[in-house]
Amino acid sequence: MGTKPAKEALQSLLKSGNISRAVYIDDVFAFQGEVDVEQALGWFSEALAKSSEKTLALVTVTYPVPDDDILRTEFREKWNHLSLEKKADVVNGLSEVLNSQLGKDKDMASKLKQLFPVEFDYREVSPSVWMKQKNQILADIPENSRVICLFDQDLSAESGFTDKGSLSGGGLLKDLVDSHDKSNLLCGILSHTIDSIKAEHNYRETF
Question: Between residues 34 and 187, which one has the greater pLDDT?
């Protein structure tokens, strides 16, 4: 059976809801694409504190050292000589050291993307990119159609974001609903942190 029924159901919903664009906001996307050396260094330092053995297997530097500047200088030099493919491998490894849930979230994000038709306007963005570009992302929707925005609730894997409050998925969703034209907007939360469906329905009614 596979994913065929899910694909067919989703396509039916997109058509009946006149949805022309879907945007998925998740912290896993912060670990995609070309990463700035300082961001990578920040993740590397955090990962070292959690598991030096696994982290040093990704990028070998002199550790421990009496002066962190030595480590930072060595990491920057090695990072700048890595290929884009190797950098992506290192970032994936760091994400798993920092948060084992990220590996599962990446799999789920990949499966979600596969459910949408190839030609459909489906966008994956990190929380920080969403904050900077949401107006552009929500612009140019075809007339009389709608956009659906899906938020991961726990965004804490990206620096500056959280699993609760205004900088969580629910917080970003509320900000969007409060500030955007609701006539062409649909929103939802995707999360592994929901313990009770009943409690979630009550929360939704309150929200």
Answer: 187
- With residue 124 as reference, give the H or E element that holds it: strand 121-125
Calculate mean pLDDT across residues 99-104. Answer: 70
Question: CA-CA distance, 181 to 178, in Å (whole number)?
Answer: 9
**Whole-structure pTM value:** 0.73
Pairing relation of β-strands 121-125 and 19-25? parallel
* Tens of pLDDT, residues 142-187: 888 999 999 999 998 887 899 999 999 999 999 999 998 778 999 9
The two three-digit tokens of residue 65, written as one number: 């050292």
Beta carbons of 189 and 169 less than 8 angstroms apart: yes
Query: Which pLDDT does position 201 carry in this prediction?
Result: 72
Query: How far apart, in whole angstroms, are the C-alpha atoms of residue 195 and residue 193?
Result: 6
Structure tokens at 67: 């002066």
* Radius of gyration from C-alpha coordinates of the chain: 20
User: Encoding tokens for residue 19?
Assistant: 């949805």
CB neighbours of 154 closer than 8 A, spacing ≥ 6?
Answer: 27, 101, 163, 168, 169, 191, 192, 193
